Amino acid sequence: MIGAIIGDIAGSVYEYAGNKDPSVPLFPPGASYTDDSILAVATASAILDQRAYVSAYRQFGHQYPHPMGGYGLGFKQWLMGSDLKPYNSWGNGSAMRVAPVGWAFETLEQTIEEAKRSAEVTHNHMCGITGAQAVAAAIWWARHRKSKNEIRELVVRHFGYALARSVAGIRSTYTFDSSCQGTVPEAIAAFLDSTDFESALRNAISLGGDADTLGCITGGIAQAFYREIPPHLLNPARNLLPAELLGIVDRFSERYPLFHTPS
């Protein structure tokens, strides 16, 4: 899941910038973890400690109330209210926090069902559920050594997303979109058009959209596929995380070994 967090941090300062340049710095001054990382760690915590997702999301949301970029309005209202019912969201929040699910379950069927469970505590609209399931499944397929062409075909077949566009084609017309249906296919395309972990992040944050979430989703898949994260990306991200969040990331990584780090 650290790949998702690195993508979140790399995209954090470009979230509303409309950036179309893949060569921009990935950790410029002001780069920080956002709600994407916080809630991905909450998902990991729920899995590790066999807690309800609703409890984990509310705990971490209250404990880290002012991340860079802030929580979405719907989630913020849910977080501050007393009603624990989901609010029928189709936003990309369900997809940005789901990466740990893609690592923690043995079968594809378990992964897809667990992604639904993690999404529907807030994002019970079918588009919100599908977005989470597609991201978790893509990570699962990448972990199991499916090729990029296979991952593309499987995502299209199982979830109906159109994945024929290249990053260059998306970039030319894409603008900020916080919906699952307007974020998840683009993030997967950013991975599919990449050559390594870093190029996947650069593809994602150069689309000119919701850069931290695009980076988060793309980074989670890219980590599973490439198996390597270079130290110049890994170390700054680890240094930016609060100790408690980093501790959960490390505990999750120990239980579900994720990647080889070059020395």
Topology:
Elements: H1 2-11, H2 35-49, H3 53-63, H4 73-80, H5 93-96, H6 99-104, H7 108-120, H8 126-143, H9 148-159, H10 167-171, H11 184-192, H12 197-205, H13 211-226, H14 231-240, H15 243-255
Helix pairs in contact: 1-12, 1-13, 1-14, 2-3, 2-15, 7-8, 8-9, 8-13, 11-12, 11-13, 12-13
What can you see in these coordinates?
This protein is mainly α and 263 residues long. It has a single domain (2-255), classed as ADP-ribosylglycohydrolase fold, CATH 1.10.4080. The protein is built from 15 helices and no strands. The chain has helices at residues 2-11, 35-49, 53-63, 73-80, 93-96, 99-104, 108-120, 126-143, 148-159, 167-171, 184-192, 197-205, 211-226, 231-240, 243-255. The longest helix has 18 residues, at 126-143. It is globular, with a radius of gyration of 16 Å. The protein starts with a helix and ends in an 8-residue tail after the last helix.
